[in-house]
């Protein structure tokens, strides 16, 4: 079966391509290479022994999207990762985010609805919950006003898919990721942040390697056990496997609704200081850091209630924070070595 993976050379996309190939799927990767590099294809091949078909494609170009789908009439599903994802950048440049995250989704759905098998997996985010009232967060927690244009594009994306699935043959699963971290155990693929990392874990591993002077911890005055903010850090390979399981659910017509939603996390919250201490444990290095003020738009706490994914998808995150941090550190050493 042929599956299209948009943004398939990105961090989560590339790990998902590996898991799709491991399950015997024929994969066509589309990516505009704006936030990754072609070398990721080599990494994928080094892991699975198979090079996925690749087409450089900017999904903002509607005609090119139409032509691409015309050239692939036998598609069984799409896993849609392609989007911009830097929260801070989205505040500075909202129109870039609305164009790149919304228009592209519309163009892909307009073509997918024409296929006899219109199965769609959407890369969403726990950011749609904002600061949820109750921890752990379930899928029916209220959707708060987005804290950033990036978060808003995920909320709008979910609404577009829901409205479209109602009146087309599209079946969809929305996967709300918590905080993806780590790298493939082979160290053939991993996170490739361009410029100064915005996310905690790549900043930690770059600091550990000596590329950054010290980590700034954004606030230790949160109402949490140690004062630093709490998140649910999930190994990217666990996340990738969930995408294949969700896709197979649709292909096997096991879904019980046109659109289903699942939180993908470990179910455990970890504070910034706990992540730092875990890094120090797995690397044997002391991490230089300083406490600074809170980052605009950050929430206190977010970790997933994973019951629905565990029971309905039959999926559960396998890696611990320690294993995920060890894989992130191993990857940092590999790419800088
Ligand atoms: C985690 C914690 C920071 C950097 C965002 C998006 C989410 C997803 C993941 C795309 C927070 C603290 C961070 C640093 C720090 N993105 N931190 N110093 O903000 O939870 O989630 O990225 O899919 O949708 O919202 O992740 O890694 O940026 O921050 O203290 O240098 O680490 O304040 O508490 P976040 P993050």
UniProtKB/TrEMBL annotation:
<dbReference type="InterPro" id="IPR036291">
    <property type="entry name" value="NAD(P)-bd_dom_sf"/>
</dbReference>
<dbReference type="GO" id="GO:0006012">
    <property type="term" value="P:galactose metabolic process"/>
</dbReference>
<comment type="similarity">
    <text>Belongs to the NAD(P)-dependent epimerase/dehydratase family.</text>
</comment>
<keyword id="KW-0413">Isomerase</keyword>
<dbReference type="InterPro" id="IPR016040">
    <property type="entry name" value="NAD(P)-bd_dom"/>
</dbReference>
<protein>
    <recommendedName>
        <fullName>UDP-glucose 4-epimerase</fullName>
        <ecNumber>5.1.3.2</ecNumber>
    </recommendedName>
</protein>
<dbReference type="GO" id="GO:0005829">
    <property type="term" value="C:cytosol"/>
</dbReference>
<dbReference type="GO" id="GO:0003978">
    <property type="term" value="F:UDP-glucose 4-epimerase activity"/>
</dbReference>
<feature type="domain" description="NAD(P)-binding">
    <location>
        <begin position="5"/>
        <end position="325"/>
    </location>
</feature>
<keyword id="KW-0119">Carbohydrate metabolism</keyword>
<dbReference type="InterPro" id="IPR005886">
    <property type="entry name" value="UDP_G4E"/>
</dbReference>
<keyword id="KW-0520">NAD</keyword>
<comment type="pathway">
    <text>Carbohydrate metabolism; galactose metabolism.</text>
</comment>
<dbReference type="Pfam" id="PF16363">
    <property type="entry name" value="GDP_Man_Dehyd"/>
</dbReference>
<comment type="subunit">
    <text>Homodimer.</text>
</comment>
């Amino acid at each position: 079966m042929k599956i299209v993976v948009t943004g398939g050379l990105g961090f989560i996309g590339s790990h998902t391509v590996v898991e799709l190939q491991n399950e015997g799927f024929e994969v066509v990767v589309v990516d505009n290479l704006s936030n990754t590099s072609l070398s990721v294809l080599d990494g994928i091949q080094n892991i699975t022994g198979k090079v996925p078909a690749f087409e450089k494609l900017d999904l903002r170009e509607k005609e090119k999207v139409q032509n691409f789908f015309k050239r692939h009439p036998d598609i069984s599903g799409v896993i849609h990762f392609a989007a911009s994802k830097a929260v801070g950048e989205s505040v500075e440049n909202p129109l870039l985010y609305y164009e790149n995250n919304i228009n592209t989704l519309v163009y892909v759905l307009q073509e997918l609805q024409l296929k006899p098998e219109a199965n769609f997996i959407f890369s969403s985010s726990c950011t749609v919950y904002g600061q949820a009232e109750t921890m752990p967060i379930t899928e029916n927690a209220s959707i708060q006003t987005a804290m950033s244009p990036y978060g808003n594009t995920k909320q709008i994306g979910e609404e577009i898919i829901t409205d479209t699935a109602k009146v087309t043959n599209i079946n969809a699963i929305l996967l709300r990721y918590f905080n993806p971290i780590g790298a493939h155990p082979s160290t053939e693929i991993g996170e490739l942040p361009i410029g100064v990392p915005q996310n905690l874990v790549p900043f930690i591993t770059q600091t550990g390697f000596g590329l950054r002077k010290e980590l700034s911890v954004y606030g230790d005055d949160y109402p949490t056990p140690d004062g630093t903010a709490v998140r649910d850090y999930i190994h990217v390979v666990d996340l990738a496997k969930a995408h294949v399981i969700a896709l197979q659910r649709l292909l096997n017509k096991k879904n019980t609704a046109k659109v289903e939603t699942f939180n993908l996390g470990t179910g455990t919250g970890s504070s910034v200081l706990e992540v730092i201490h875990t890094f120090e444990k797995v690397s044997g290095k002391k991490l230089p850091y300083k406490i600074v003020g809170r980052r605009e738009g950050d929430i206190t706490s977010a970790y997933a209630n994973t019951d629905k994914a565990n029971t309905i998808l039959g999926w559960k995150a396998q890696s611990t924070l320690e294993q995920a941090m060890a894989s992130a550190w191993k990857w940092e050493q590999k790419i800088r070595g």
